[in-house]
Amino acid sequence: MKLTLRKPDDFHLHLREGDRMAAVVQDSARWCRRALIMPNLKEPVRSTQAALDYRDEILAALPQGGFEPLMSLYLTDRTTPAEISQAKASGAVVAAKLYPQGATTNSDLGVSHIEGLYPVLEALEKTGMVLCIHGEVTAPEVDIFDREAVFLDQVLDPLVRQFPGLKVVLEHVTTAEGVAFVEAGGPNLAGTLTAHHLLINRNDLLVGGIKPHHYCLPVAKREKHRKALLKAATSGSPKFFLGSDSAPHPQSAKECASGCAGVYTGYALLPYYAAAFESAGALEALEDFASRFGAEFYGLPLNEESLTLVREPYLIPNSLEYGSDALIPFWAGQQVAWKLQ
What we know:
The chain is globular. The chain has twelve helices and 13 strands. The protein is α/β, with parallel strands linked by helices. The strands form three sheets. It has an eight-stranded parallel beta sheet, with helices on both faces. It has a three-stranded antiparallel beta sheet with strand order 1-10-13. A two-stranded antiparallel ribbon has the order 11-12. Helix 3 packs parallel to helix 4 (118-127).
């Protein structure tokens, strides 16, 4: 059995930097024609020039070409409307990323008070750039499994009402509430769905011992939420599209007393998604989800290249080289049913 589809885009990708970026960018280029690159490096990408420099570094690691990094800006309390205008004029920066302060990896410089960012959001709305949101509150009194649902009520609902013309992506949706919120929103609101959130629930993280390589933020939720995500992904709704949130961390930083949040799905990205869609009997819906809906939301032309998956068992390696350390891919040591032809 074969599955041929237009080459996908990934609208949420972490590549890191330096040798570690070079170790993983080939994986993403194998599966995707374009990817929206996340800006939460150790020194966050807060200016247009920094985004252009990072783009050059990524392209230099891919001498064969065929992959286009779409850049994003890391919003802080000090971001200015002028920076948004400059980013738009560059032609290379297509989105701005809102991290609530302390929500995830390298988010300590993120936004502390969303109301203080309103002039920047007005600039985004005016220029047509997309606002990508890590949708979780970080208040200590909110249970980690409830952070997304509380964010929808306290932050995102007032925001989309205040800026109805702003294009907003609720990234890595993990709850039935998140799915319902996106579905009920207007045409300027969309959501990305990761392969790992379509495939695992919180039992896969916690039962039989903690699985550090299944730990990510937002954390995987109950099975009812996974089913809601899978239904959304396979529904044919243009409001949901591929955003892998593939996030590499060295093995030593995952398997330790305070392990980093992030799941590395870049190695076998399309086989993971194919497994999820096949489980729902909806392989025919994968191409639009992976290759059409995201591009249309971002106002980009559809890719002309295609790739073919064959239904043939394939063993995911136990580990990958990652600079001086190792990188453990999602489902390491397990078989997936699909591979690249």
